[in-house]
Amino acid sequence: MSGEVLSQNEIDALLSALSTGEMDADELKKEQTEKKVKVYDFKRALRFSKDQIRSLTRIHDNFARLLTTFFSAQLRTYVQITVASADQIPYEEFIRSIPKMTILNVFEVPPLDGRILMEVNPNIAYALMDRMMGGKGTSVNNVENLTEIETKIMSNTFERAFENYLEAWSTIVEMEPQLADFEVNPQFLSMVSPNETVVVISLNTTIGETSGMMNICIPHVVLEPIIPKLSAHYYMQTDKKDRVPEEIERLEKHIQSAEVSVVSELGNSEISIQDFLMLDIGDVIELNKQIEQPLIIKVGDIPKFIGQPGKVNKKLAIQVLDIVKGGDDNDER
């Protein structure tokens, strides 16, 4: 039972209304006993929990950071992309909320079914294209008259940018984003039924001096197979240590294939500039080492081995005799 404390003035006004007949006590009692009914709109069915929406927000926070890095490198200018909001609404409502003419990139994300929509405000798209063509990043809105060249540049750019989506989702699912369609009129785009629930992640985007929005629209049917993974419980159970050996093995393979320089010094000598300028073919420079003394073998400019010179199959070679201890600060061998 909830009780609300009335002030003395409110009590006096209530008694006055009852005494004058403006308010009927029986109707007041009846109103209090009636059940409260909350309006529920079946067209706006909430099919994602708050926990799942928070997980999607975290994923797209990572995606926004990856996009910021990608576009900064491509455009050589100031780029800032952040998540503004994440909401679940009917698909029809999303289509009504975006401009009548805009940049629409439709992606397939196998192994998940369905398609994901990336809507880019025309001001952002034109600023991006102008910068890629060598301009200052000037924004215009001529999306109704896109040329074939402009369409190709935009679609290729956003297709490469959306490759970062794979990394953003890597902890949940290994998807392979592929550009399926490029459109400018939302009315010609029919991804799902109008009443289908979609999650819309809005990204605040700044390129140079131009600001606008990018929206990622994900239908419920796409996320349905992995919805159980979009929870804090799943994140807590995920054992990241299981991936550590794989990462170490991958790192070792990269290190093993890396190329390093190996140099053996026969010796060195100091001569004057005058003697250096007078050098001619056939002159002999005396080194500071005897012929029977071992040579130092350097790996990446760091002394690592001791060896002796020789020949193998008529080719100059050097034989490793020992390991240099204390070759660098971290070498204890």
TrEMBL record:
Keywords: Bacterial flagellum, Cell membrane, Cell projection, Chemotaxis, Cilium, Flagellar rotation, Flagellum, Membrane. Transmembrane segments: none annotated. It is a peripheral membrane protein. SUPFAM superfamilies: CheC-like, Surface presentation of antigens (SPOA). The keyword Membrane applies. The keyword Membrane applies. It is found in: Bacterial flagellum basal body; Cell membrane. It comes from the Bacteria. Gene3D superfamilies: CheC-like, SpoA-like. Its main location: other. GO terms for cellular component: bacterial-type flagellum basal body; plasma membrane. GO terms for molecular function: cytoskeletal motor activity. InterPro entries: CheC-like_sf, Flag_FliM, FliN-like_C, SpoA-like_sf. Residues 254-324 form the Flagellar motor switch protein FliN-like C-terminal domain. GO terms for biological process: bacterial-type flagellum-dependent swarming motility; positive chemotaxis. NCBIfam families: fliM_switch. Belongs to the FliM family. PANTHER family: FLAGELLAR MOTOR SWITCH PROTEIN FLIM, YOP PROTEINS TRANSLOCATION PROTEIN Q. This is Flagellar motor switch protein FliM.
